[in-house]
Amino acid sequence: MIDGDQLPTLDAPRVRLRWLTEADVDALYAVFSDRQMMRYWSSPAMTERKEAEDYLRRIHEGFAAKSLFQWGVELTQERRIIGTCTLFHIDAANAKAELGYCLGSAYWGKGHMSEALTALLDFAFTTLKLRRLEADGVVARIVHHQVPPKVEYHLTDWGQSLCPALDALLVWAESAPDDLRRRLIARNAEQQP
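Now predict its structure.
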């Protein structure tokens, strides 16, 4: 899928996706110890630099196994790692993978990740010839090769773990006063094309 001993560099207007090295451990630690960013990640914020060293080792092991392609997102002008973009759960036989990304909270809202993901998506679909990317792991899709075609969707275990929170949110929304509910419905109707 990717030949060689490291990931290729992908350029975008203001950022570059590149291979992560030992010199990037402090930057990885800064990103993955950012508590605001880590609220949206699948593990707690790092508390020690050694965790970033171990993480970099796992990134390199995943690349060697061709099961994880994780680039550092570097601000081109500053040559600073501000996040990562990842293809994982790579299924070459079915031309699919999952997509993950993170960005230090100081860089949110500036379009850096949009540029990085545009470059990554172009690479994934044109160079790697992937046909499908999944971005969250909440819903699983099973294709049954039959006539007529059949596709099943179901919540993954992680998706199931969201149900109690979604149920609580539904109960909260249903308890809204009637006048508030009517105003929200009217506002949503006005915003529809």
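The two ends are 43 Å apart (CA to CA).
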